Amino acid sequence: VPEPTPVPTAIPVPEPTPVPTAIPVPEPTPVPTAIPVPEPTPVPTAIPVPEPTPVPTAIPVPEPTPVPTAIPVPEPTPVPTAIPVPEPTPVPTAIPVPEPTPVPVVIAKYSFSAESSSTKLTNGLSTKSKKFGMSVAIDGDTIITGDPNDSFEGTDSGSTSVFNLSSDTWIQQAQITADDIYQGYLFGEAVDIDGDTAVIGATGGAKGAVYVFVLLNSIWAQQAKLVDLATDSSAQFGKSVAISGNTMVVGAPTDDAPETDSGSAFVFTRTDDVWGKVAQLAPSGRIYTLSNNRFGTSVAIDSERIYVGAPGDLSTNGTDSGAVYVFTLSDGSWVEEAKLHASDGGEGDNFGHSISVFNDTLVVGAPADDSNATDSGATYVFVRNATGEWNEEVKLIASDGAYDDNFGWSVAVGADVAIVGALYANAPGSDSGSLYTYDRTGTNWSERSILTGTDTTSNDRLGTSVSISDNVAVSGAPGNTEKGKETGSIQVFTAQLR
């Protein structure tokens, strides 16, 4: 060729160029090629990355990472991953909790049925007992029962008795009276117990009173006597009582403040063994008259709320249709949270005559409801939902309800179980009284059994009072006759696990 090629040829040719190349390339390639190839690279390799990777790669690869890995996390993961993954976790796992998760709490559920054993107890420490069992309460292995017409300190002065369970036998531990009670005092008209503290209502004094006794060295010692000077002489202060821890509520259903028999409820708290009044509860609003509401006929309390029955309330379903008021503690004050009434309530039903609460389940008696017959009675179950609203879950009526049974005169509720007293039921005898037991499955309640106890006879009025603690229920039969005298008794029932 007349002229040389301007650059070396890429591929050698079998013949040399006739003349030398014009100009050699000025620079060699900056680095050797990674793997020798039969031909030189036509241009220099890309610029190398300036820094090595900060940490070794997890699994060796045939090629280096093209860029450095992300910034390392400051801490290692606290535990190995369940299944190895090809990449590290981008951030540390959550901080480990210091303790393992606790064991779930399981509440035992019992059923009271025809197979439940029953024991009849009487007042063995008094020869003047009368209407023993008018009021009852149980907590664990301790039962307290009122005998307001006992003549221990004079006619109708009253007394209470305490029974303890020892080696599967109920033993009368003590008979309690107060030093200042006298004729007509009705000490024991209402009772309640929580642990080593018992509260006893006495409505027959000048204004009524409530006594607090505590168990010290196996002796029940009086800790306080509570009265309210603001109530009138006929207020029946102490007609109903309930205690939870260091808080107590007392009903005065015929208190005349603000109107005749409108009723009141009083809240007391204990600090360093001293009790003091912190609130007087009353229904909110005056749309309807409060006269004859009898607010405070029944009371109940749990760790967060107070419940007060007003069977004379007329604001929703007519005169004496009844209501239950729910109060909750807010910023140190007890405020009304809800007013409950029967969805099908009618005039004269006396809804709220009795109440009992367990967790978020409230049972309310309406003993003068006419569902089966006049005054046959009914009981309603309310449940508090997750948003704090109370809803009626079911209305219970006796399978054999009859005229004037007064089903719902007393009520008690436990873990998915309820007992309803019908003190004038006529089986096994006229006005012998009965207890109806119910089991709950989901939201369904079913009647399980009708309990009549041991040696129950006519006019015993079993079901005048009732209380539940775990697998034991106790009910009063104040009309029971022993040796020709109306002395009263209580019946204790032991349930079976479901």
From TrEMBL:
InterPro entries xref list: FG-GAP, Int_alpha_beta-p, Integrin_alpha_N, Kelch-typ_b-propeller
Protein name, UniProt field: PKD domain-containing protein
Pfam families: FG-GAP_2
Region annotated Disordered, chain positions: 1-37
Keywords: Glycoprotein, Repeat, Signal
PANTHER family: GAMMA TUBULIN COMPLEX COMPONENT C-TERMINAL DOMAIN-CONTAINING PROTEIN (PTHR36220:SF1), UNNAMED PRODUCT (PTHR36220)
